[in-house]
Amino acid sequence: MGEHPPIAPAAPLTLAEAAAQVLSEQTRVLRKLGRRVRRGRDPEDVHQMRVATRRLRAALRMLRGQLVVDPRVRRSLRWLAGHLGRVRDDDVILALLGTHVPKASGAEGRRLVALVASLARARAKARRRLRGALDRPRYRRLVRRLARTASAPAVAGDPDRLAARALTDATLRLARDAEREQAMVDPSPSPEALHRLRIAFKRLRYVLDFHAATGGPAYDVERELARSMQDVLGAVHDHDLLMGWLVAGAGPFAGPWPVLGARLQRNRATLYRKFLRLRREWRERTRGSPSVATLEEPRFVHLEPRSVTLRLVTGGKHVASTMIS
Known about the structure:
By secondary structure, the chain is mainly alpha-helical.
């Protein structure tokens, strides 16, 4: 038997090719989930459709100034995200409250059941508005425009610019943005600071996902950490939001909630401890070993799309490089 010929590494993607890949995949997901949301009532479909909308917006934000996009696409994505967000927020709060309903008793328990019923009615109304939005011509035009953009992306400047360079630049910039957030250094960050940090890690996580999808294995550890940080900060935000509504006591939230409030505080404390652990892991990972401890920029181990060079990237500079077979 003869030897198999060596498999040549895949050619690195240009920015136009990477844009086409990311936009076409997310547009396909958006279209599929739009059909599912129209037909069904599964909260996960709404969540995943919202994620696809966020990924599309993140990609267009990252490529601003490099990709020519009809401004109506951005406006319509923001409009769609608003409808999806209202339903998803209700789903999240109802799920959070639902875990406490079986444990409720007495007058507070009865008010909790009434609160859940009131929020369920509001969610049903938001779902009807969402389905109406998905039936509107504006939504159909949005999907068509996204598909056209994905099929033939118009890149401003050099059409042959490598996606890996653009995505690496975006990754380092967003990592620096996250590192500079108050919640990364403050020993007791406010809910507002934690919310801003969640947004920073969400944007970083999406770019890391794009990098992995278009350039092969890249930043795998940082990508997982960013996802975990986004998830735990999202859960902290949900608790802060609900506890704020309970304290304000407006509408169906009126009345004292000593038992529910105490439970939410305990859950939030557990989530906050997990955030502190992830923050410590992120600092250790990005600030590196003692040999690079004096560097101010985040440290990432990056596997090039060419699959031959493993390099240490810090601030866009090569600190170390070695070939791998």
